[in-house]
Structures are given as structure tokens and as C-alpha cells.
Amino acid sequence: MNERLNVLVLDDEPIVGKRLQPALAKVGCDVEVFDAPEPALKRIQEKEFHIVVTDIRMEDIDGIEVLERVMALHPRTKVIMITGYATVEVAREAMAKGAFDFIAKPFKPQELRDVIAKAAESLGFHGLREAGVE
Amino acid sequence: MSGEEEGTAMGLEERGPSEEGRAADRALLHRPGISIRTRLTLGFLAFFFLSAAVTVAAWYMLDRLEVRIRFLEAADRYTLEIQQARRFEKNHFLYGTPLSDVEEHAENAEALLQKSEEEAGRILSRRDFALMREHLRTYRGLLRELDALERAGGTNGPRRAEIEAELRNHGTQMVTFALELAQKEKANVAATLALFHRLPAVFLVVLLVLVVLTANFLARQMLGPLTRLMAATERIARGDFSPIVPARRYRDEFTNLAVALNTMMRELVHRQEILVQSHKLQAVGTLTAGVAHELNNPLNNIVLTAEMLKEDYPTLSDRERLEMVEDLVGQAERAQKIVKNLLDFARQGEIAAERLDLGELLRHTVSLAGNQVRMKGARIQLEVPPGLPPLHGDRQSLVQVFLNLILNGVDAVAKGGHVWVEARESSEYAGFVEVRVRDDGHGIPSHVLPHIFDPFFTTKARGKGTGLGLSVSLGIARQHGGDIRAESLPRRGALFTVLLPASRVPAGGAEPGGREPERAVE
Q1: pTM over 0.80
Q2: If contacts are CB pairs under 8 Å, which of residues 356-415 in chain B contact chain A?
Q3: What does DSSP assign to residue B451?
Q4: Domain covering B39-215, topology
């Protein structure tokens, strides 16, 4: 199991990607960050990621559609949805459509790392490095 | 009638509407009061006095007629006496009958003349009357002289013949005068009688004219204010709550009605303001959900950035740290802006008329609704042509109208649906600007369409809508001298058209709405 965990982060807020990139890299993930759905979907067609983290509400293509596309292409990929206030129903719909879990904004980097760790474990990855807080 | 129309001040004056209404009330009441009761009383009194005057005149004329008839009798008797005197005079000279018979009748004639001196003087000229008396006096003088002559024994002689000739001469004259007097008086009596014949006819004609005039006057006095008050109620029904101001110089019972109507309008305006405010709070509630959702983005950015700054602080370069702090500040400002927009809208603003740029106002409204639109996954498209004339009105209220229509549209469309907002100059109503808010949602069923502007009518689930939105919006539009029309496009959604009067010539700007809305509302 030397393979590194491939993670794609999609959120139309650029700061989210900017902060999550180092946060996830620290724990040993290979992170690719996108702030628009189209290039992200294109990348997903090229490469099978272990984990896709996507925001549900975006301008053009929403997270549910991203989820459907990923599920269709790579059923093994774990998709984690980021939801906001008042989209809990959408999150539930996402779970029904095969999302691994969802996390509500605002969240701390460690919360996402915990969810990713769980997803990684279900994929057979172990020993995801503990985030070095102190 | 004064002919001036019942003046109306604009609904959206710089001063408060209630103060304006009170000023109108003061003007209404600060007029000399002549009640309708007083006017009716005066009218009927005038009639009474006219009838009384005619009665008195008739009575007076009748009295005069009586006097004249009596005088006519006297004149006849006088003529008779004179004629008798002359007959006896003739007999005396022919048959020597006693002269005292002549004297007796002449005396009677003089007594009659004495008694009706006043009357006769009025009928004959003073000179003629004096002449008449003179003849009689001379006649009697001659009689006395003749008597003295005959007693002295001179039954013949030149003096007697002389006296006889003079007596004859004066006698003829007296008879002529007497006949003339009687004839003149007969003519007078006939004239008076003829007048009496005409009098009822003249009185009837005068009465008819007066009745027509009085009826007309009273009708104008009562129907005029009624017509104006009816016009005022129609105006009120259209949502123009400007107070009724005086149109006449006097106040009466209708004034109380006008004051009552003004009071009613003040209450209506007050209620309307409460409705507007309560609906605004409901809109704020709707927007709050969107704002709360939207706030999560900057908050999330702040949490992520702050956490990472804390985690990696020792390993970060100064430049990286500075960048993160700047992100923190930027995102905090973004959050503040989101909240500020909502608070600006929620704040209870004084209703104030100002010059408004419709394009800017619509852009602001669309951005206010932006969170809702994004949450729903809908699209909103705004089209404002350049060079649109400005409006005059209350910014907060108009934002509320458009926001309400946009939010309704967003509610109606399916995910990914569209709402279009287009502003343009109305092609149908000159001087008006129209804003069309269209959606491609499910449309409005035809049985619902006539009721959508009714207060508290709602098709939304219990607790989701107050049913005030459209009713309040229509109220605001009408206060601005405009209107809102709704259409349902079968299977193509709904179209709401807001008509608002464009602000005319920039100078002064004292005429916010103009009077045209009547045309728009018909």
C-alpha cells in the first residue's frame, strides 16, 4: 500500500482550495484543487481519484451532478459533499445517490481530514498521517 | 359654483401624509359655515316674503279700487246734481219755478266736490279742479245775485238777461267737467281691473322662474359637493390618498363628510404603512435564509484560513502569513457586506420621495435577491436599456415591490429556471416606465389570477407566505401613481408588469407623479 491517496477538491470559493491543498498534503495526500466544475469533471474523466470532495451549490453544474458523473465513471471513488446551511435535504439526496459522507460549512480542516481518513480506510488505505497539530 | 376642481395634493409629498391631511382639514373647517339647513331655510323664507309682498300689493290695489269705485259713484252723483241744477235753472227761466230748487242742487254739488276734493285732485289736474270749483262758485254767486235781483222786483231788464247768459255758460262748463271727471275715473277703474286680470298670470310666471332658479341653486349646492365627493372616493379606491381640500368658500354638512373622508384616508395610509412594514419583515425573513446560507462561504473561508494559520504558523513564510491575514480581512468584509444589504432593506425607513435611477435600483434589488436565486439554482437576467427616464418615489418601497415580484418568480420556477427583469419606457402609456418581471415557472391558474392582489390571499403553504406581498406591492405602486398588472402565460410562466410614472422635466421636480395615473389605472 505505497500508493498515495489521490484527492480532488472542487469548490467555487478559491480560498477553500487554497487552504485545503496544504492541509491535505500535510497528511500525505496528493491534492488537486479546482474552483470550477468543468475543468474538474474533465480531470475526473482522465484520472480515477480515490476521493472527490465537492461543494454542492455552484453556479453552473452543481455538486449532485458532479457526484452522478463520478459514480458513473468510477464507482469506487468516495465522494464527500460539502453542504451549506439549508441544503441538508440535498445532502440527504446525495447520500442516497452514493455519496460517502457530507460535511457542513463552515468546517475546520481537521474535520475534513477525519472524514477523508474514514473514506481512505474504507478504501483500504491505512496510516494516513495524523495531522501534526503540535 | 366656483368652477374650480376639488384640488388634490400629491400623495407623496415631502411632508408627512398625515400632516398634509390635517392641513387640508384645517382649511376645510376654517371657512365661514353656512349649513344646508340654513340655506334651505333662507330659500323658503325668500319664497314666503315674495308671496307676502304679492298679497300685500294685491290687498293695497283692491283697497285703491274700492276708493275709486266710491269716487266714481260720487262723480256720478255730482254730475247728476249739476244736471238737476241746470234743469231747474231752465225751468226757472221758462216757467218761473222757484230759484231755491236750483240753489239746493248746486249746494249739494259743492258739498260733494268738497268731500272728494282729495280724490278728484289726483284724477284731474290741480288747475282743472280749481277751475271746476271756480265755475261752481261763480254759478252760485250768480244765482244769489239773480235771487236778490228778483226779490227787488226786477223780473225783466238787461242785467237779468246777462245773468241768464252767464249762468248758462258756467252751467255748460260744469257739466262738461263733471262728465269728463266721471269718464276719466271710469277709465282708471277699467285700467286697474285689467291689471288685476294680469296679476295672477304675472305672479305665476315670476313664481315659476324663481322655483326653477331656486331648485337649480339648491341642486348645485348639494349635487356639486356630492359629485366631488364621489370623484374623491373613486380616487381613493385607486389608491390615491391625497386629502380633500376645500373647493368652495363656505363650509356645510358636506365639509364634515370631507373631514371624515380625510380621517379615513389617514387611517388607510397608516394601515397601509403597517401592512407594508409587516410584509417587509416577511421578506426579510425570506432573505435571511439566503443570507445565512450565503454567509457560510466567507465564514468557511475564515475558519479554514484561521485554522491553517494556527496549524502552520511556525513553518509559514511572512509573505504567506500576510496573504492569509489579508484573506481573513477580505472574507470578514464580504460577510459584513452580505449582512449590511439585508439590514439596509430591513430598516424601517421614512417614506420619502426622491429622484431614482431605475437601473441602479433594479440592480440593487437583483443583488439583494441573489442569494435566494442561487439557493434555488435559478437564473436571473436583468435588462435595463440606457437612457431610461428617472423616477420620483420612495426607494425602499420600490425595492420592496421589485424584490417581492422577483422572489415570487424565483419561488415559481423549477431548479434551473429563469427570471427575467426588463425595464423600458411604456409603449402603451406615454410618460410611464414599465418593469416586466417574467418567469418560466408554472404560471398562475386562471381561477386564481383575479385574486392574487387580494390581501392575505396566498397559494403558498401555510407559514410560507403571508398573502400580503402582491397586495402591498400594488398599494405601493398606486401610491406612486402607477399600477401592477399580472398575466399568466400558459405553460410559460407568469408576467408581472409594474407601471410607474416617469419623472418629467428635471427642473423643480416638484411633480412626483402627475395626474396621469388615472389613464393607467382604467
Answers
A1: no
A2: 374-375, 377
A3: G
A4: Four Helix Bundle (Hemerythrin (Met), subunit A) (1.20.120)
